[in-house]
Amino acid sequence: MSDLLGQVHAAAGAYLASLSGRAVQDPAALSLLAELGGPLPESGGDPAEVIERLLRVGTAAGTASSGPRFFHFVTGGVTPAALAADWTAALLDQNAFSKISSPFAHEVETVALGWLRDLFGLPESWGGALVGSATFANFTSLGCATHWWGFQHGIDTAADGLAELPRMPVLSSGYVHASARKALQMLGHGRNAVMVCARDGVGRIDLGLMRRHLDSLKGAPAVLIANAGEVNAGDFDPVAEFAGLAEEFGCWLHVDGAFGLFAALSPRTAPLVDGIDRAHSIAADAHKWLNVPYESGFALVRDQARLGAAFGMPGAAYLPGPGDPASGYALYGPESSRRARSLPIWATLAAYGKAGHREMVERHLDLAQHLAARVDAAPELERLADVKLCIVCFRARPRGVADLDDFNRRLGAALLQDGRVYAGTTVYDGRVALRPAIVNWRTTEADIDLFVDVVRELARKMI
Ligand SMILES: *Cc1c(COP(=O)(O)O)cnc(C)c1O
Question: Where do the TM regions start and end (predicted)?
Fold first, then answer.
């Protein structure tokens, strides 16, 4: 077995060294994917050849999304300590189900959750769950909200479901993320449960409208979703105003802070998440701005007991129940058997500390401002939004082009086809735009400059 691991180790050095120079995607290499198909082998092959093939195809055809020039979606990289710890997680193959299945994984998870609370300035008394993604963190948080809401109506939804209940009112701004809707859909509320209170085409919150909707509920409990870092321009709902309404009307306040929660790390951006400690639940990703490998998200929940109430799994004689001292994190979140995803979180926080992560966030804030300045300086580019955090929303507006939406959509496609840098398009206030997001520790000013140069070059060729 150690020979196979030696193969991976040998390939890793060259691959990691290539990341800062290579294209995000080499379109020609995609033909290699055919080498992995064919029928299921009856008798199997030489494992050394199998791993050699996987590494050869993967290092050529894989997307260099952990490299410094993948600005699509919101995609973090992997710090060295996090990567080594992730390998360790695979090596040890712990089941972080309970204290019995792995006291080690349980303890590291406890420490990692404590450090995350500390990193974001949240009270030690909060509970938490390490999950696979922010989608699952939204699911976990809104699962707790659902249980709380059922309880207000005298129903234990974990035991009896939603059948006896009216529809759960959920209110948010137009910034609400598709994954929060997906979470509501998985929880049985339906993704259309969200009442959007937006005052404009961007989706900014209309607090007066939200208050009127809350008034019309006549005291019935509701759930508010505040969005700390929306995906088009990195803007924030006013969390403290949401908290004020939640307190006045007795609502559950959930904050989707998938990447925006990291604004708390720098005094320059911390005001953007003012009031976040007044939330009942917060969802965030570690595989974005914490720069640990996929799959890694987390939910932080003010009332720790709510996690056990919503996600406990009592009733099997061979399993520990929620109150059992031998129980563990499987009873405080949606998954049962699970890998020790705490290890890379623990390692990156242990290796770089609060200051290291603050420094990284601030470097990205500076890079985003640099990108904004480069966009502003280019006559054929037009910035569409203030840059509050790590996303720059802009479009090309070359002279003489009539259909700018079509042009920018084609520019986005050309960017992906070219492969040197990656960014995605969106529709911002009715206009097709690019929205590069900067959250990878490897990204430098040279990468940002190359990004702008490639966008301008491709736009020029399209005219
Ligand atoms: C990325 C993101 C999500 C979903 O995160 P996944 O990790 O992809 O599940 C949710 N909300 C916001 C604001 C995001 O940026």
Answer: none
Does residue 127's CB lie within 6 angstroms of at least one atom of ligand 1?
no
pLDDT digits (tens, 9 = 90+) for 4-57: 999 999 999 999 999 999 999 999 999 999 999 999 999 999 999 999 999 999
Does residue 229 have its Cβ closer than 6 Å to ligand 1? Answer: yes
pTM score, two decimals?
A: 0.98
Neighbour order of strands in the sheet with 223-227: 127-131, 297-301, 281-285, 252-256, 223-227, 170-172, 194-196
For residue 177 and ligand 1, the question of a CB distance below 6 A is answered with: yes
Mean pLDDT value across residues 441-452: 98
Query: Which pLDDT value is given to residue 326?
Result: 78
How many Å lie between the centroid of ligand 1 and the Cα of residue 318?
Answer: 36
pLDDT digits 0-9 by tens, 204-232:
999 999 999 999 999 999 999 999 999 99
Sign (positive or negative) of CA dihedral 368, 372, 373, 378: positive
Q: Nearest C-alpha to atom 12 of ligand 1 is from which residue?
A: 258
Ligand 1 within 6 A of CB of 75: no
- The alpha helices in 315-444, defined as continuous H runs, are 342-377, 404-418
Q: What is the pLDDT of residues 237-285, one digit of tens each?
A: 999 999 999 999 999 999 999 999 999 999 999 999 999 999 999 999 9
Residues 391 and 368 sit within 8 Å (Cβ to Cβ): yes
What count of residues does the chain have?
A: 463
